[in-house]
Amino acid sequence: MKLYTGDLSPYSAKVRMQIYAMGIEDDIKFDLPVQFMMGKMSEVSPIGRIPVLETEQGLIPESEVIAEYLDELYPDRALLGATLKLRADARVISRIADTYLMNNIFLSLSQLNKETRVEAVLDLLLGQVQRGIGALEQHIGKGDFAVGQLLTRADCSLTPALWMCTSTIPRLGIDNPIQPGTRVAGYWQKIQKNKYAQRILGEMNRGLQARLDGTERRMAELAIASARDH
Ligand SMILES: N[C@@H](CCC(=O)N[C@@H](CS)C(=O)NCC(=O)O)C(=O)O
């Protein structure tokens, strides 16, 4: 199988963390199609976003769908918790991370430029992020992991989402919504010590660095030029 993925993409990082934690890395190659760099990812996959999993039966888009597919493909290694309720709890946290945190933070990036920024749009989106963090505070477990006593897919979704809270939101000139002394802050400190979380956090930081210092743009230009020559 092949995963279309990029270092900085939090939705891709979520799936990579699951792959690392399940120990199935040898079965899946990582790649980023040149069409993504050209803004033409929809030529590869109609939704036009990464991650996408390429299987022998065809392409699977959407991180949550890929995550469930991998859990079902390797049931002995599935990362969803032992009981029905733990599995429901993990799904709820994963939805909070995807829908209420990452999606709104992504949309808020459209307002990075202060010259063209529409404050009302930013207020709306970051208000939704605050609401998501408030809900997460009630749902998150008190131990080392988001749900129960073991790493689940909830941790794989939350780790990149909380990284976005700490690394992306401040780039908009807005405070990190993770407030000191909260359960979410305590969880964030603990999960950063997990080796799978550390690995994707390192990859996302590397991706952010490459975006900021122009390496990502130069690599994309080379890949596009090489694709045009062939
Ligand atoms: N709901 C999708 C979101 C994926 C997504 O937005 N991916 C971003 C990168 S993290 C992307 O491909 N953006 C390209 C674009 O919006 O054109 C998922 O869970 O996979």
Report the mean per-residue pLDDT as an integer.
Answer: 97
Largest sheet: 4 strands, mixed
The count of domains is 2
Number of strands: 4
What ligand molecules are bound, each kind once? glutathione
Oligomer: single chain
Strand content: 5-15%
Name of the CATH first level of the largest domain: Mainly Alpha
Given helix and strand content, the structural type is alpha+beta
**Alpha carbon gap, first and last residue:** 24 Å
CATH overall fold name of the largest domain: Glutathione S-transferase Yfyf (Class Pi), Chain A, domain 2
Radius of gyration: 18 Å
Gross geometry: globular
Residue stretches low in confidence (pLDDT < 50, at least 5 long) are none
| Element order: H for helix, E for strand | EHEHEEHHHHHHH
The helicity comes to 55-70%
Architecture of the largest domain, CATH level 2?
A: Up-down Bundle
Distinctive features:
230 residues; Glutaredoxin; Glutathione S-transferase Yfyf (Class Pi), Chain A, domain 2; 2 domains; 9 helices; 57% helix; globular; binds glutathione
Structure report:
- Strand 3 (52-55) and strand 4 (58-61) form a beta hairpin.
- The chain folds into 2 domains: 2-77, Glutaredoxin (3-Layer(aba) Sandwich), CATH 3.40.30.10; 84-193, Up-down Bundle (Glutathione S-transferase Yfyf (Class Pi), Chain A, domain 2).
- Helix 1 (10-22) runs parallel beside helix 3 (63-73), helix 1 packs antiparallel against helix 6 and helix 4 (84-108) runs parallel beside helix 6.
- It has a 4-stranded mixed beta sheet, covered by helices on one side.
- It contains 9 helices and 4 strands, in the order E-H-E-H-E-E-H-H-H-H-H-H-H.
- The longest helix is centred in the middle third of the chain and has 25 residues, at 84-108.
- The protein has 230 residues and is an alpha+beta fold.
- It has helices at residues 10-22, 34-37, 63-73, 84-108, 119-139, 153-167, 183-191, 195-213, 215-229, and strands spanning 2-4, 29-31, 52-55, 58-61.
- It binds glutathione.
- Residues 9-12, 48-51, 62-64, 98, 106 line the site of glutathione.
